[in-house]
Write a structure and sequence with these properties.
single chain, 5-stranded mixed β-sheet, 18 helices, about 45% helix, globular
């Protein structure tokens, strides 16, 4: 199940007060839509049934998502085109796979203009997992900003993060200590340590305490298997949309042909619900008394924030960050050691890591190349003109827009040498943060009840900076990949 978590990617919530983002600026002066040539959107959906099936097989089997989008950009000589994205026929008869792909930074940015687009029920495309996975409720991620409950629930989520900021750093560092103690012991014993499960256990315990206000150890069952319950709950919702990489055609037949029923995980989900109901009373009561939610609405949305956004997002993002650092052979680690020990101080805090400019750049560059949420969707709220770098296109009300961030974040008109991991990229040009969209909006944006940007935009990046700073307070170097650590060298010099 941990392997599945490396394939999915939701975002995360946190207090916008922690932001250290620079003012919004633009990197290039792109032509306005009025000055661009208007072009008919290239591409096609193909024959009914056959077109979607053909695209689905390319997407999951013959090409894979990255090649699927790249080949169509080359074919149509456009970063905006019509195509189909899974899931599709045979057992998704109510799902329309037709999308307009937007695959450069300029066209992709339209997905965040709430005057032009809506986000109702399109978190993962036209397909929506059954609400039975979330107590027969549409959680905030599936609500459009025009729906009254969106503001209530998002404000609740932002308040949770504001309150949790008081204990966030202490809980994070305590759990990181336990996690790296486990890695040290396994490396010493076996010569390498697989870290995905220990990392997920630590993430779960840390987030449960910070977001729910509950100590997972209050329930031995939850403490031991809570992370695995969330893995299964996430997997069954997202399997029809995610390439896993198992033997074909078995993956197509058993994972991408139908939606899995919620009853397969409902028993375990109810255990998490009951755990929050019993041990997270303070947070749940705040949702009821201060934000006008019912107890059920507060708990199910809290579970979604905990499981889908926070746990799911970190489970994808942090292994990629470890891999970027642990596999580097350019001397990056020595530079990170120097910056952390000269500037972070002996006690880590949100404020201390804001001074770690190289660490921040490494975090941003990891998010650019490996965004936790690869696909973003939005539906046109009205007819409007969408522009790429070189053309304008007429979009009709109701059309579904699809952006594949992994491709968008390799836009050569914005990012120099876009396929290469460049740790100094955001250190050398801070304006590039205007085009870093991992959080459902630009890194320079501000989450609010009136938009769909991840409320945890700032705390996620700060947490990642704390994660890196902790590593290089503890170690002079680490060696490994996105799933294992093969060597660690303990620090010889303490932070000043």
């Amino acid at each position: 199940m941990s392997a599945f978590m490396m394939s999915i990617t939701p975002g995360i919530p946190s207090p916008s007060s922690s932001s250290s983002s620079p003012p919004s600026q633009t990197v290039t002066s792109s032509p306005t839509p009025a000055s661009l040539p208007v072009r008919t959107i290239p591409g096609a959906y193909g024959l009914p049934l056959l077109g979607p099936i053909s695209d689905r097989l390319d997407y999951f089997w013959f090409q894979g998502p990255e090649t699927f989008f790249k080949k169509r950009i080359e074919k149509y000589k456009s970063t905006v085109f019509r195509t189909n994205v899974p899931p599709t026929f045979p057992l998704f008869l109510g799902v329309n796979p037709n999308v307009v792909a937007v695959l450069d930074c300029k066209s992709f940015s339209h997905l965040f203009d709430m005057d032009l687009v809506e986000k109702k029920n399109c978190l993962v495309g036209d397909f929506m997992p059954s609400v039975k996975f979330t107590g027969d409720l549409r959680t905030c991620a599936y609500l459009d900003t025009s729906e009254p409950q969106h503001a209530q629930i998002k404000n609740f989520a932002m308040d949770i993060l504001k309150q949790s900021s008081k204990i966030w750093v202490a809980e994070l560092t305590a759990n990181l200590s336990t996690f790296w103690d486990t890695i040290d012991a396994d490396v010493a014993k076996d010569g390498s340590a697989s870290f995905l499960i220990p990392l997920q256990k630590s993430i779960f315990k840390f987030l449960t305490k910070c977001l729910v206000g509950a100590d997972a150890s209050n329930s031995p069952k939850i403490a031991e298997s809570g992370y695995a319950i969330l893995d299964r709950w996430l997997a069954l919702q997202l399997l029809p949309t995610v390439k896993i990489g198992v033997l074909q055609p078995l993956e197509e037949i058993f994972l991408h042909s139908f939606a899995y029923p919620s009853f397969l995980v409902s028993g375990d989900y109810n255990k998490l619900y009951q755990f929050i109901e019993e041990y997270g009373k303070e947070v749940v009561n705040r949702g009821q008394t201060e934000f006008g939610l019912s107890k059920e609405e507060a708990i199910h949305n809290l579970l979604f924030v905990l499981g889908f956004n926070a746990f799911g997002g970190f489970s994808v993002f942090l292994p990629g960050l470890i891999s970027a650092i642990a596999s580097d052979t350019t001397g990056l680690q020595q530079r990170l050691v120097k910056e952390v020990r000269e500037n972070a101080g002996s006690t880590l805090s949100f404020e201390s890591v804001k001074d770690l400019q190289l660490v921040q750049s490494v975090v941003y560059e990891t998010l650019r190349l490996n965004p936790p949420v690869p696909l973003q969707f939005a539906r046109a709220r009205k007819d409007f003109q969408l522009s790429s770098h070189d053309s304008a296109f007429e979009i009709k009300k109701g059309e579904l827009l699809c952006g594949f961030q992994t491709q968008v974040m390799r836009d050569g008109k914005i990012f120099d040498d876009p396929e290469t991991f460049k740790p100094d990229r955001f250190l050398e040009n801070k304006e590039l943060q205007n085009h870093l969209y991992w959080s459902n909006g630009p890194q320079t944006g501000s989450p609010s009840a009136s938009n769909k940007q991840c409320p945890g935009k700032d705390i996620v990046t700060l947490t990642a900076c704390l994660f890196v700073a902790y590593i290089f307070q503890r170690y002079d170097s680490i060696t490994g990949s996105s799933s294992s650590i093969t060597a660690v060298e303990k620090a010889k010099q303490e932070a000043v």
